[in-house]
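2024-03-11 09:14:02 DEBUG pipeline.ingest accepted 1 chain
2024-03-11 09:14:02 DEBUG pipeline.ingest length=260
2024-03-11 09:14:03 DEBUG pipeline.predict start
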Amino acid sequence: MRALVVLVLALICLAAAPASAYYPWDVWQADRAFQKGDYQEAGRLYRKALEGASGDARALYGLAQCQYRTGKFAEARESFGKALAAGNPEFRARAAYNLGNALFREEKLEEALEAYKTALRWDESDDDARYNIQVLLEKLRQKKDQKNQQKDDKDQKKDQQDKKDQQKDKQDKKQDDKDQKKDQQDKKQGDKDQQKDRRDQKKDPQQDQKDQQQKPGQRQAPMSREDAERLLKYFADKEKHKPDRKARLVYPPIRGTEIW
C-alpha cells in the first residue's frame, strides 16, 4: 500500500510539473538513491539515464555529485563541466559552484576562483560563492608571498655562496702569491748557492792550503786526493812561469862583496 502511495505521488508530481522539469524514471530513482546516501547506486542510475539522453543537465549534475561525494574529484570536475555546458538555467549556477569545489580539491586554485566567479554572476545571492572567492584570493596572495619569499631566500643563499666563493678565491690567490714568493726566494737562494759553489771551485789552492793548516790545538784534517792533485798542479804551473835567473858565478867568497 505504501509503495502504491509513493507511485501515485510521483505520478501526480510528474503530471503537475512543467515539461522542462520532466525526468526519466532512472533519474527519479537515482535521486532517491542519492538522498539515501547510496552514491554508488545513484551514480549507476544517472549513467543509465544518460545512455538515452547524454546531454541531460539533471542527470549530469546528479552524476557529478555522486562522483564528488565518493572522492572522484577529477571525474566530478568533468561531469560538472558538462552540466554547466548543457546551459540549463536551473543547474548552471550550482554546477559552476560545485565545479569550483572540485577544482579546489585538486588544488587548482586559480581555475576554482574563476568557477566561483561564474557561479556568483549567475546567482548574485550565492553568499557561499562570494565567501569562497575571498578565501581563494587570500590563499593565492599567501601562495604568491610564499613563492616570493622562497625566491628571496634562494637569491640570498646564492649571494652568500657567491660571497664565500669570492673569499675562497681571495684566499687561494693569497696562498698562490705566497707560494710564488717562496719559489722566487728558493730560486734566489739556489742561485746564490750555485755562485758560491763556483767561487769555491775557483778558489786559490794556496788559500785552500792556508785554510786547511792546522790551527793551534786542532788536529789537521787529512787532504783529499783531489786537493793534493790540484796543489801539485798549481806548483808545477808556478814553476813553469817563474822568470829565468842569470847564472851565478862561483868565486871564493869575499867579505863584504857579492858578485852575480
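2024-03-11 09:14:41 DEBUG pipeline.report Residues 103 and 111 are 7 Å apart (CA to CA).
2024-03-11 09:14:41 DEBUG pipeline.predict end
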